Amino acid sequence: MSVVLITKDAAAQLRPCLESVAFADEIVVVDSGSGDGTQELAAGFGARVIHQDWLGFGPQKQFAVEQAAHDWVLCLDADERVSAQLAASIRGVLAAADPFSAYRFARCNRFLGRYLRHGEGYPDWSLRLFDRRRARWSDDAVHEKVISDGPVGTIAGELMHDSAETIALYLGKQNRYTTLGAEAAVAAGQRASAGKVWLSPLVRFVKFYFVRQGFRDGLPGFIHIAIGCFNSFSKYAKMIELQQRTDPSGKLRQDSRP
User: Which of 25, 44, 63, 208 counts the most CB atoms within 10 A of its CB?
Assistant: First the structure.
């Protein structure tokens, strides 16, 4: 099995990730131009390091998968680490030759110093282990996902997400994601409405804070869900702005381009 990662200036987070997958047959790191020693750190762990200019999240991850020496791949981000239970589960299913083409598992997100166990932050099912002959990453520039043409199994253990981002950096990333999401939605012919701008954040809050008991994660859980609700508002607001700037053919008006 190959572990594949995409990186950019991830030296501060990468070591625990690499240590957690020492059981892999190989580690492939595709870097898009780090200047903080990420490539050297990865090479020091025995990883095969490849440079690739940024292609977008989905295409970059698929490029990394295609560089692997083995058909079974485990895709990780630099700020994630495989728990001992998940590592045992992965070794078990690969040895058992189960009839699944891909596997999902829970991801546990650390936010404001607390691992979230409810609401939007958990179980955050992540499909990351798959046979690349039967599954692949989508081409989405953001919110990319693995598309499998066979059955998907669920295995025990957690992928620990230990993001060390400040709130300011987190909000900046979410702003970029909502922009990309809005652009992709409009390009796909989706339409936003006033109702979605108003109702989507409210429905999201009720779902994650009350129905899925995000309140049990205390203040970090509330802040995490509140930011998610604002992201929903932002995406639809940006879609409306884009819709107002487009002509009937769906192309941006030349006089409205920045």
Answer: 208
| Whether pTM exceeds 0.70 | yes
Pairwise CA distance, residues 122 & 109, whole Å: 7
* pLDDT higher than 50, residue 55: yes
- Over the stretch 149-176, which tens digit does the pLDDT of each residue have? 999 999 999 999 987 678 998 999 899 9
The residues, ordered by sequence, that sit 6+ positions from 50 with a Cβ below 8 Å of its Cβ are: 28, 29, 30, 31, 64, 67
Entry field: residues in the chain: 258
Return the SS3 of 151: coil
Q: How far apart are CA 235 and CA 89, in angstroms?
A: 37
Radius of gyration of the chain (CA): 20
Helix (H) or strand (E) holding 41: helix 38-44
Angle in degrees, CA 251, 253, 255, rounded to 5? 160
Q: Provide DSSP, 222-248.
A: HHHHHHHHHHHHHHHHHHHHHHHTB-T
Could you tell me if 116 and 225 are in contact, meaning their C-beta atoms sit under 8 angstroms apart? Answer: no
In the chain the beta strands, taken as DSSP E runs, fall at 2-7, 26-31, 48-51, 72-76, 80-82, 102-111, 114-115, 126-131, 135-137, 146-148, 152-161
Lowest mean pLDDT among 74-78, 87-91, 248-252, 254-258: 254-258
